[in-house]
Amino acid sequence: MNRLMKRLAWGSATLLASLLLLSAPAAAQDALDTGDTAWMLSSTALVLLMTIPGLALFYGGMIRKKNVLTTTAQCFAIAGLSSVLWMVAGYSLAFSDGGGLNMFVGGLGNLFLGGVAVDSMSGTIPETVFVTFQMTFAIITPALIVGAFVERMKFSALLWFAGLWMLIVYAPITHWVWGGGILADRGALDFAGGLVVHLNAGVAGLVACIVLGKRTGYGTENMAPHNLVLSLIGASLLWVGWFGFNAGSALAAGTGAGMAMLVTQIATAAASLAWMSTEWIVSKKPSVLGLISGAVAGLVAITPASGFVDPMGALLLGIIAGVVCYIASVSLKHAFGYDDSLDVWGIHGVGGAVGAILTGIFAVEAIGGTPGVLEGNFGQLWTQIEGVIATILYCGVVSFILLKVVDMIVGLRVTRDIEVEGLDINLHGETVHD
Amino acid sequence: MKLITAIIKPFKLDEVREGLSALGVQGMTVSEIKGYGRQKGHTEIYRGAEYAVSFLPKIKLEIAVTSELADSVIEAITSKAKTGQIGDGKIFVTSLEKVVRIRTGEADGDAL
After folding, report:
1. Among partner residues A222, A285, A289, which is closest to B47 by beta-carbon distance?
2. b/e per residue, B73-105, with b = 16+ CB within 10 A?
3. Which listed residue, A7, A174, A238, A251, has the most CB atoms within 10 A of its CB?
4. Which chain A residues contact residue B45 at CB under 8 A?
5. Do the Cβ atoms of A223 and B49 come within 8 Å?
């Protein structure tokens, strides 16, 4: 073949090859990243540990011995109940396309996890992993509420309320923030659930403790924690597990997760020291309960901010959260007189709201993609406040309705005799023997 | 025979036991109890909720002795359990009608 023909042949072959490549279908999804997947599998386990036994022990140690099994049972039972309901409808309502209603809730496209196959992808991780990771959030959120009405709620009522609440309050609010709904649309920043999990649970807790009323003997009887060692163990499991909660919300094993883990640690430590210091000044003695409560307050407040702030912001956020949540739990509660027994509103509600608002202030564009007030974006503060208000209103109203409905179905509160004798023996037929 | 019931501060138990061993007392029953007299309790604060705890932990000793030994036992307990601070405790002496050793069936003086 002469030179010209050769060139033409090569040229055509190259052209043909290029055309074939360009016309090949574009990749329908990201390739699976084993590093991201491994981290997310681990995070899922860490977050489950936060509820069982983290939260169970944290709460269990703080109430009277005659009710410890009940409280831990409620957390454990919700783990089972929420898992099943998440599989049935929760995931679909939170994360699938809601069609015309997509601003407010997902659809039924993933009912019974239909459409989630072994090789379905969610970003760089299998969708199955995403489903389970989010399931652990759907478990801990209703479990948090338990702390507001310990020692007086019927087990049947708790199961009804937790189940309905997860589907009707938790799933929609999740959709608003993480499922492509209205708050996401408006640019609200909530990395790991300051609104979705903590403010949500906090508001429900406040409403519930007011609807159920105070414990019999509140204010006169000794209701001291029966074993703070359990609470400390629980708080420690919460702290460590929270790395899965916050750093895992990066949905990837990378720089975002790294920064999220770092700021989580800083804010938590700062908040614990801040609560401890405040208490030391006010009550003259720094308590163990204060140390661990401060830490949890910091964990709550950094949750929405964990993917958006830098270490300096986290430090300030932690200090503010420690002091504000101390005031909410110690002063405000006694001033208003509601029996939010384990300070679900004081720590999770107030901490979540404070954290969400401070996210709007401390957000760093280079970290999470959106600047906050300190970088000149004043609008973000209002967007965050909007998210807080929307969550409070929807959760508050619907939680109230659900409680009234459950009250009609099974009755919310145990009888006075059962309450005085103790829930463990009366509701579960078991006691803790020394 | 006398039953001597002594309520003492918990950390004094070992000293009292040694003192009584030296007298030849060969057994006693010990219970962990709570109580108060002139010693006031303390206040605990949990997240701003104050609880006045009036009952303080104490140890109760019950010792069965012959009437002859009673006074020495009282003297031993008093000297070993005393700190001089409020809350040292009290000793009650009651008459014991009958004592039986379960293993052998021995009674009264032989059972002490």
Report:
1. A289
2. bbebbbebbeeeeebbbebebeebeebeeeeee
3. A174
4. 283, 285, 287
5. yes
The residues with which A125 forms a beta bridge, in sequence order, are: A122
Task: Give the number of domains in chain A.
Answer: 1
Q: Tell me the residues of chain A between 246 and 285 that have a Cβ less than 8 Å away from chain B.
A: 283, 285
| Interface predicted TM-score (ipTM) of this complex, two decimals | 0.82
Name chain A contacts of B49, Cβ cutoff 8 Å: 223, 334
pLDDT digits (tens, 9 = 90+) for A160-185: 999 999 999 999 999 999 999 999 99
Q: Tell me which of 2.60.40.10, 2.40.400.10, 3.30.70.120, 3.40.50.720 is the CATH number of domain B2-111.
A: 3.30.70.120
Residue A78 belongs to domain with CATH number: 1.10.3430.10
Burial tier of B64 (Cβ tally within 10 Å: 0-12, 13-18, 19+): middle
A173 within 8 A of A196, measured Cβ to Cβ: yes
Structural domain boundaries enclosing A291: 34-428
Q: Encoding tokens for residue B8?
A: 């003492």
